[in-house]
Amino acid sequence: MKWFLLVLTVFAHAPTGSAEDRAPESPVTLKLVAKTDTYAFDGSGKTTAEYKAALEETARTLEKGERANPPKPLTVDLVLQFTNTSKEEVTIHVRGDANVYTFELKGGAGVVTMKNPVAFTEEFRLPRPVTLAPGKSYEIPVKTFADGRRGLSRLLFWTGPGEYTLSAKYTLADKDGGKAAELTSEPVKITVTDK
What we know:
Blueprint: H1 2-13, E1 28-34, E2 38-40, H2 48-63, E3 75-84, E4 90-94, E5 100-107, E6 111-115, E7 128-132, E8 137-144, E9 146-147, E10 154-158, E11 162-173, E12 179-184, E13 188-193
Parallel strand pairs: 2-13
Antiparallel strand pairs: 1-3, 3-8, 4-7, 5-11, 6-10, 9-10, 11-12, 11-13
């Protein structure tokens, strides 16, 4: 009976999945830097409720595959910062079509996301290698509040004044354009004020 309980304990604490299924821990970290963390709300003359309802209606229309004109994307001043935390040089591959970053915005008066009805050229863009010395960083500026394919396929909108939290995920590519590690940032605070 004791042997049976010991086996149960071992299996309960054994890692799930095979070694091939578990992604190796990346020596590179992702930090989301809000160079500007306070923005003025512009509801285009609508109340917060009207603005949110209009955004949600546009998002539903686009989700159905129908034509709609979303508002102009919000302007932001953010940076995706990759840092080599190891003691050796590391090469990462960034900016190709396999590299996708996504934002998660929460809180405030609410959040609406929607497809961005823009046309993309058909060529597959390969990633670019960047070698980071120990402790060194590489930065990608983000000026438009959008994410997804080529940083443009999805738009994000805060729907009114308030305190929001924002985090980012970035899927690194390998040298051939395949997927490598997925990095996640710690959240940052964004404040949206009355205009």
